[in-house]
């Protein structure tokens, strides 16, 4: 997934350069990087909370999440 995000960022910067508006490409790429970081932080926080509550991150052992 991270490789895909990096490819999109590179494509945005390159498209901005080709269109003559490098600033727009760079600012859009920065926005994508910030959004990607937020998603990673939320995912990590979720994993930490699951680990604290259930004592494991092993999906088959977390049977109380069913339902």
Strand content: under 5%
Low-confidence stretches: none
Query: What percent of residues adopt helix (DSSP H or I)?
Result: over 70%
Mean pLDDT: 88
- Structural category is mainly alpha
- Number of strand segments: 0
Number of domains in the coordinates? 1
Biggest beta-sheet profile = none
The coarse overall form would be: rod-shaped
Q: What is the rounded Rg? A: 18 Å
How would you describe this protein?
- It is a single chain.
- 76% of the residues lie in helices and 0% in strands.
- The chain is mainly α and 67 residues long.
- It has one domain.
- Helix 1 (2-19) packs antiparallel against helix 2 (22-54).
- It is rod-shaped, with a radius of gyration of 18 Å.
- The protein starts with a helix and ends in a 13-residue tail after the last helix.
Quick structural gist:
The protein is mostly helical. Helices cover 76% and strands 0% of the residues.
Q: What is this structure's SSE topology?
A:
Layout: H1 2-19, H2 22-54
Key features?
rod-shaped, mainly alpha, 67 residues, 76% helix, single chain
């Amino acid at each position: 997934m991270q490789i895909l995000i990096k490819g999109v960022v590179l494509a945005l910067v390159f498209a901005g350069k080709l269109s003559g508006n490098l600033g727009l490409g760079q600012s859009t790429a920065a926005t994508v990087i910030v959004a990607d970081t937020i998603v990673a932080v939320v995912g990590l926080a979720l994993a930490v909370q699951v680990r604290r509550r259930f004592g494991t991150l092993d999906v088959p052992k977390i049977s109380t999440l069913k339902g």
